[in-house]
Amino acid sequence: MLVEPAAQIDSFIDSFGNRCTRFFAQQGTLRLSNSTLICDSGLPDEINPNAREIPVQDLPHDVVRYLYNSRYCEVDRFSIIALEHFGSVPPGWSRVQAICDWIHTRVTFGYQYARPTKTALDVYTERFGVCRDFQHLAVTRCRALNIPARYVTGCLGDIGIPVTGVMDFSAWFEVYLENRWWAFDARNNQPRIGRVLMAAGRDASDVAITTSFGMANLTHFTVVSDQVQPAQAHL
Amino acid sequence: MLVEPAAQIDSFIDSFGNRCTRFFAQQGTLRLSNSTLICDSGLPDEINPNAREIPVQDLPHDVVRYLYNSRYCEVDRFSIIALEHFGSVPPGWSRVQAICDWIHTRVTFGYQYARPTKTALDVYTERFGVCRDFQHLAVTRCRALNIPARYVTGCLGDIGIPVTGVMDFSAWFEVYLENRWWAFDARNNQPRIGRVLMAAGRDASDVAITTSFGMANLTHFTVVSDQVQPAQAHL
Amino acid sequence: MLVEPAAQIDSFIDSFGNRCTRFFAQQGTLRLSNSTLICDSGLPDEINPNAREIPVQDLPHDVVRYLYNSRYCEVDRFSIIALEHFGSVPPGWSRVQAICDWIHTRVTFGYQYARPTKTALDVYTERFGVCRDFQHLAVTRCRALNIPARYVTGCLGDIGIPVTGVMDFSAWFEVYLENRWWAFDARNNQPRIGRVLMAAGRDASDVAITTSFGMANLTHFTVVSDQVQPAQAHL
Amino acid sequence: MLVEPAAQIDSFIDSFGNRCTRFFAQQGTLRLSNSTLICDSGLPDEINPNAREIPVQDLPHDVVRYLYNSRYCEVDRFSIIALEHFGSVPPGWSRVQAICDWIHTRVTFGYQYARPTKTALDVYTERFGVCRDFQHLAVTRCRALNIPARYVTGCLGDIGIPVTGVMDFSAWFEVYLENRWWAFDARNNQPRIGRVLMAAGRDASDVAITTSFGMANLTHFTVVSDQVQPAQAHL
Question: How many CA atoms lie within 13 A of D181 on its CB side?
Fold first, then answer.
């Protein structure tokens, strides 16, 4: 990462396995930039309707924590509601998909509905939100049904999407089924090409793109992505 | 840990550094027991009024996460209130102590006020709670003031306390000042002898004594502690 | 009403049509008592499965306000949820009954679950409460479905109930169907004999048995009811 | 009020003394208009620093209800906080003014912060809002301190305000001191000329400008005010 004006940058791996960068910024204008070349399979999100739910007792140790409460995912307030809503849906992949379908159909997207303190319960009652809100509700319901779920921040391309030019930072979520994590997206609710996972955590509080201690006003935010051919990439 | 009827026990270290034990319990009565010999300094909680607050940029990497939101500690809802209340108190030890004094004086203890979903904001408005509630409010305010704070579950002896026989499982919290974690206790708010730290995390959700997936009714809970002399301990 | 030590009592009718009594109490022990003879039909709550819902535009003016929000009945947070849950049930009596059945079946009664700030949304997520909580959730859902509903405080006899001796102050609710108010009770959910309506309002905040401004600790609360024959009553 | 296309209009006085109009609108575009000539004193809001608080026991019967909870004014959650914040300020006018000053200084106005479910507690923690939010917090704190307060919807002129052209529908609140209701405005917090009170109630839920049962999208909203001279007015 490039910081202008220059600052001493420190990098570390957090408890969720994410690479984090810290630095001390002087007062004034700050410009952060980064460039990377990502090798993507070019395939849409994998779908596996046969992926089974793992009984809690068989989950890997480091996956169990993704069943717990977090700031925006009040699992304790959804334990009964989630069972009432989705308890009759077959467990595993289909249950997660049913949760996504429900949210995708019944929550309306709009940037004006964003607010920093909005929780899964707020999304459930208000039915408006941004991508983070869609995923928080999905994550919370999965956890309430004992399906490990984690919140993901990343970059979502527009490859294969009719309306191009919408490549943007986004949020989705992952669930642990069978023996691995799988991407789901209650906001878009369709397989997409080119998800670039930047960080995963319990909810948005863990994986904010930036966390600043002190006043920090965002004035510009630009994402540029170019699709290059493997041949070019090797140059 | 002894489990009756016997079950295969699995042990691991969680992301907070706590030793955790997992097992699959059959339906029916379950008895968990454990016995340990602990070497305690016999000294009350250390007090260091000179312990300084560490600027956020100088905090160790693995301490930073204790500034963030968690289920019962809505730091985002306290950022302004905490500053209004304690911003004029000198930073460092005295500010943490002021937070403890405030809570100890203004929140009333009572087992009947416990409820699983009670958050720091609820404690602030209701002013009733159990030990976990006292600590959640303290932890949240410290974090809102950029002082790393973590919630601790453990066993608190009654050594040196006028009313003996109150040795019990309890909760307190720790803050990171100067170069280490220090124990504080907004519930008791006095230095105590013999704190046995069992687990530390972001809030009660991380360090529940037991987390059960499936119906589990607690029927008995007994803690026995005997003070033994070092000579005996070496036998 | 008899107040000991004696105080000047003022009586008035509030905006909901309830008779209220006000007085200024001196510091010290206060004893309030009252005695009344009530003529009851001896019949259980009337049931009328044919009672129709009245379109909002045809509701009497003074009934419309019972469609609105109140402190413990967040109608605005239930407008979508209520429709999802009960929108497919035929409107009118059967819809109200379905709401009562749902709550009666899924919420567990317990005095230890009472707390003054508990709202309908809390009851929906926690599923525990006292009679007031059952009725708040029912009232909120009815209003969210455009069925006027009001909260009632009163005395509920144990006539005809297998376990006698449970005569007590209680809460239930009323809905406006066809051309009048009808009693429903999500807590007991069965027709009862001898409901003595004391006050009706938007929620418990409007019809507290006592509202005291200043410290007031309840030390005793006794209700005595005797069934007398009409002949006696005429004496 | 003129309704186009024409509908049968029904008018009544609600329990707060407000004149309300009801009608049944057909599907399609609806246009509501009204025109009125108001005689205003031309004087700014009256200020009376000597206006005393009335002890609860001496309040008129119909004023007492403005001490109670309502949907957006959770008095029960502010009873302690309000006393801590303003208990040391002399009671009466100065206490209400201190509440307005606090809110005016510490809450930031912005239309993007409006949301229908925002309560006084939300305003206290978030510190952002529209005029209704400013007043809800003020009303709640006054009630928590036993000062009757009611929420007012109306039209606020820009007479005497440097930036003209801002005449708009607005909200303020009134408190009962000495022997009458007085206008306060935590949003503008300065005496204004030409407040046209349209409705008063417990909070915004009681005095919405329009309450529609069924889908209703606001497409245009225009307020035109002309200052006319008394001579003209008499024509």
Answer: 18
Tokens 């004696």 identify what position?
Answer: C6
Tokens of D219: 């497409």
Cα–Cα dist D187/D171, whole Å? 9
pLDDT per residue over D109-119, tens digit each?
999 999 999 99
For helices B75-86 and B131-144, the axis angle rounded to 10 degrees is: 80
Chain D residue closest in CA terms to B85:
D85
**The pLDDT of residue C32:** 95
Do A77 and C126 make contact, defined as CB atoms within 8 angstroms? Answer: yes
Q: What is the pLDDT of residue C234?
A: 52
Cβ atoms of C106 and C138 within 8 Å: the answer is no
Rounded CA Rg of chain B = 19
Per CB-CB distance under 8 Å, the chain B contacts of C112 are: 112
**Tokens describing residue C108:** 């567990």
User: Which stretches in chain B have pLDDT values below 50?
Assistant: none
CB C91 within 8 A of CB C50: no
What residues of chain B, 135 to 194, have a C-beta less than 8 Å from chain A? Answer: 146
Residues 113-142 of C with CB under 8 A from D: 116-117
- Given a contact cutoff of 8 angstroms between Cβ atoms, the answer to whether C153 and C198 are in contact is yes
Q: Which helix (H) or strand (E) holds B126?
A: helix B120-126
d(CA A99, CA B107): 40
A 10 A CB-CB count for B93 gives: 21
Integer Cα distance of D131 and D148 in angstroms? 19
Specify the pTM: 0.94
| Best B71, B115, B133 residue to mutate vs chain C (most C CBs within 10 Å) | B115
Taking a C-beta distance cutoff of 8 angstroms, is the pair D120, D72 a contact? yes
Model confidence pLDDT, tens digit, residues C2-18:
999 999 999 999 999 99
Tell me, what's the pLDDT at A234?
Answer: 52
Q: Are C138 and C103 in contact (CB under 8 A)?
A: yes
The two three-digit tokens of residue A199, written as one number: 């960080």
Beta bridge partners of C174: C150, C183
Q: Residue C77: list chain A partners with CB under 8 A.
A: 125-126
Which three-class secondary structure state does DSSP give residue C33?
strand
Handedness of CA B138, B140, B145, B150 (dihedral sign): positive
C-alpha distance from B61 to closest chain A C-alpha (Å): 7
Whether B213 sits inside 8 A of A56 (CB atoms) is yes
pLDDT digits (tens, 9 = 90+) for B111-152: 999 999 999 999 999 999 999 999 999 999 999 999 999 999
d(CA A187, CA A196) in angstroms, rounded, equals 16
ipTM: 0.92
The per-residue pLDDT for B233 is: 53
Question: Low-confidence residues of chain A, pLDDT below 50?
Answer: none
The residue assigned the tokens 């306060």 is D184
Instruction: Give the tokens for residue A201.
Output: 């955590």
The pLDDT confidence band at residue C164, using thresholds 50, 70 and 90, is low
For residues D24 and D132, give the distance between their C-alpha atoms in angstroms, rounded to a whole number: 28
pLDDT at C149 > cutoff 80: yes
Instruction: Give the residue on B whose Cα is nearest the Cα of C128.
Output: B115
